[in-house]
Each structure stands twice: as C-alpha cells, then as structure tokens.
Design brief:
alpha/beta; eight-stranded parallel beta barrel; binds 5-hydroxymethyl-3,4-dihydroxypiperidine; three-stranded mixed beta sheet; 13 strands
C-alpha cells in the first residue's frame, strides 16, 4: 500500500472523555453524575460495569501523557467532568476538581502536547437531573454557563481550543429517547427539547468563552454519518431523508444556517421543541471549527414499528460487509462523504475529525515473565481501519476540505458506556486488573504515521 503522509501542519491527536477513563469518582469532592446513577440500574451496563475505577487516569495521568509523548501525539482531546468542578451542578465551586485539570494541562504542555478541552461529554451532575430534569429545562443552560466560566477562567491562560458539547444527538437520543444511556429516559418529546437546549447552551458558551479567553478557538463536536437506503424505492428515499435530518441536518442546519430542517417538523410536529425568539441566532453564533466524529454509515428503511418516526436508521447489515465489535460497518468512504458535505453545503468551515476509531477483540500475546515485559497486542484490523479512514480524510483534504487535524478514538481502552469494558477502542491496551498500559500495534503504526508526516 502507498505510504500515507499529511501536511506538516496537520495535527494528529488522541481523544478520551472524563467518565470513560478517570475513575476516582468519589475523590477530591467530585459529586455524583447521572452516569454513576445509571450504572447502578440493573441491566443497564453490560457485565454490570461502572466508571468507578475505569483506567484510573485521575491518578495515572502523568503516565498516560508520557505514553502520548512517546507516540509523538501532538494534541490531546479530553473532557472536564462538570461534577468535579461544581459537584451539585450550579452551587459552590470545588477548587480541587479544577486543580486536577490544571495539573493535567501543565503536564501536557510540558510534553509539547496541545490540549483540546471538551466541556460536556455526558457526565451531567446528578443534582441537575434531579432538580431540573437536566437539559430538559432551560435552567440547566444557565448552570452550564456558570460551569464553563469557571473552567475557562482557570484553564484559559493555557488552553486555547475548546469544544462545548460532544455529540449532542447521542446525549439527547440515546439518553432520552432510546433510554440506553444516562439518564435512561424513553421520551421522544424530551429528546428533541434536550437537543435544542444543548445547542442554545453551546451558542451562549461560544460568546462566553471568547469573552474570558479572547484568543480561544471554539467549536462543537457532532457525530455525523452518511445515511444511505437499503434499496431505491420511494418509501426508502423518504426514510433516508428523515433519518438524515434527524441525525445530521438537525444540527448542521441549526449551527450553520440558523434554522431546523422544516420538512422534519412537518412530519414530526409533535416533537418540535419550544424555540424562543433569539434561540436560532444564538445557536448559529459562528464557530472557529467544527468537530466531526465518524465511525460508520447508516442504512435506513421505512418501518412502521416505531411511530412517530416511521424509519429505521440501521435497517440491515449486509453480510458481505465488514463490521467492528460494536456491529458498526467499516465504511471509510463515509468519512469522505461527510467531510465533503460539510465543505460543499455548509461553507467549508475549519474541521477537525475529533473521533474516529474501532473496537475489535484484542488479546495480549507474549510477556509471560513476571513483569509482563515483552507483552504485545497485535491488532491488524484496527490498523487497516485507521489506514482506510485516514486515506479518505486525506482525499477530502486534497479536494479542498479545510481539515485541520485528526484525533483517534481512543488513546486507550476505556469504559464504553452501555457496553462497559468489553469493547476496546484504544491504540493503547489497558489491562484492567493491573492497570498496565501496553501500546498496541495500531499505536506503533499511528506513531509511524505521525513521524512520517512531520518529516
Ligand atoms: O466512546 C464513545 C465516545 O464517548 C463518543 N463517541 C463514540 C465513542 C465510541 O462509541
């Protein structure tokens, strides 16, 4: 295969999120999050796993930064846990929580790694869920802004890249419509209200972050994926249009055009959230970049079993295709499609791929001596996956997409939400009983790509 290299100023990073790696959920004054509670719900998480210990990154962050340095990773995208900073959501600030992130940022900068900070990656303080119903209620927007101000005030002298929300679609839909993520609700109307309120909170946060940190670059991360049809029938075409609006256009149109797709509401008027005057202008506050998370594509079809939607986003899994351990189709050209769509239909904003990667079944080989020295994890399918997606990103870059960087998901194996620890996305293996880190073959491959691109 031809060797793959990127422009010298292209940023190669790695991504994680607080609840998935930190552990230490009861330490230094952290309050409970909706995920701490959801993990206790019988049957909610595969294997009954929780984020209580996770990768123990809260205590081992220096070691994890050293691994990134060794790999030549140039930027690290991590999220701040709101319940560490304001344990009850909108009350007193907990300086110890902020100190942790301040130390992490110093460690990163000392290693020559640029921090990209996500402010909300789903671990909402439980108190806000109990008091207001979380982002169902607009008071949660005010609480979010108070929290953001604290974080940016403390870290903004060193952190210049900010992501307000991670995947607002997933938080709204999996948490409030499908009930498979915290807070575990199944209320379609609530889901779209939560989506809207996250976007309003995002828009206000953009202005706030720039006021506190004038040289900040501020963006939002969306999970975007192409929606194709299972066949070419008119019914399928309608399902594709609806699914695409629900997943992609709802967010892209709001952020870049200041409106929601009208045809979506025409069909799903019962779900329309209360939009106040000025909301759409706030949401469309210009961003400095768009973060895109892409893993797969969706194959939609008409379905009468789930009113009021009448479409199914994952209608079929053709057996001849390849799938990851999550059951997600390996479809690298989907990343190209998404990047070109954002370029062609939404004004070619600066873009970072803030997540891309794959879960496969990994196993340790060798290293049978006591210290486990010489242990290896060979993961050729992950290498092939990353290579394929990065080639498609490279193609989009060559065709004019303003793509600035790529963050692999994930730096290390971690708590994969409802799937617990069984699904491993890392380029670094985490042996949970010992918390030993082992760089996988994909990690070494990524290091080689970074080195080659930097010349
Ligand atoms: O682990 C998640 C991450 O938290 C958000 N994006 C998708 C990843 C893989 O499911």
């Amino acid at each position: 295969m031809d060797s793959l290299t990127f422009p010298r100023d292209f940023i190669f990073g790695a991504a994680t999120a607080s609840y998935q790696i930190e552990g230490a959920v009861w330490e230094d004054g952290r309050g409970p999050s909706i995920w701490d509670q959801f993990c206790r719900r019988p049957g909610a998480i595969s294997g009954g796993d929780t984020g209580e210990v996770a990768c123990d990154h809260y205590h081992r962050y220096r070691q994890d930064v050293a691994v990134m340095r060794e790999l030549g990773v140039q930027a690290y995208r991590f999220s701040v846990a709101w319940p560490r900073v304001i344990p009850d959501g909108d009350g007193a600030v907990n300086p110890a929580g902020l100190d942790h992130y301040s130390r992490l940022v110093d460690e990163l900068l000392g290693a020559g790694i640029t921090p990209f900070v996500t402010l909300f990656h789903w671990d909402l303080p439980l108190a806000l869920q109990q008091r207001y119903g979380g982002f169902t209620d607009r008071r949660c927007i005010d609480a979010f802004l108070k929290y953001v101000e604290q974080v940016v005030t403390v870290l903004g002298d060193r952190v210049k890249n900010w992501i307000t929300f991670n995947e607002p679609w997933v938080y709204a839909v999996l948490g409030h419509l499908l009930g498979v993520h915290a807070p575990g609700l199944r209320k379609p109307r609530v889901a779209f209200r939560v989506a809207h309120h996250q976007l309003v909170a995002h828009g206000h946060a953009v202005g706030l972050i720039r006021r506190v940190c004038p040289d900040a670059q501020v963006g939002i991360t969306l999970n975007l994926a192409p929606v194709h049809g299972v066949d070419h029938s008119p019914g399928t075409a309608r399902a594709v249009e609806m699914a695409d609006q629900a997943l992609n256009r709802f967010f892209l149109d709001a952020l870049f055009r200041g409106s929601y797709p009208q045809r979506f509401w025409r069909r799903l008027s019962v779900l329309r959230p209360p939009v106040r005057s000025g909301d759409m202008e706030t949401i469309a506050t210009p961003v400095d970049f768009l973060g895109i998370n892409n893993y797969t594509r969706h194959l939609a079809r008409r379905s009468f079993s789930n009113p009021p939607f009448f479409f199914d986003m994952d209608g079929t899994t053709p057996p001849e295709r390849e799938y990851t351990a999550m059951g997600w189709e390996v479809y690298p050209q989907g990343l190209y499609e998404v990047l070109m769509r954002v370029k062609n239909e939404y004004g070619n904003p600066p873009v970072y791929i803030t997540e891309n990667g794959a879960a496969f079944t990994d196993a340790i080989a060798g290293g049978d001596d006591d210290g486990g020295a010489g242990a290896r994890v060979e993961d050729p399918r992950r290498v092939a996956y990353l290579d394929g997606y990065l080639r498609c990103a490279h193609q989009a870059l060559g065709e004019g997409c303003d793509l600035r960087g790529y963050f692999v998901w994930s730096l290390m194996d971690n708590f994969e939400w409802a799937e617990g620890y069984a699904k491993r996305f890392g380029i670094v293996y985490v042996d949970y009983p010992t918390q030993r880190r082992i760089v996988k073959a994909s990690g070494r491959w990524y290091a080689g790509l970074i080195a080659a691109s930097r010349g």
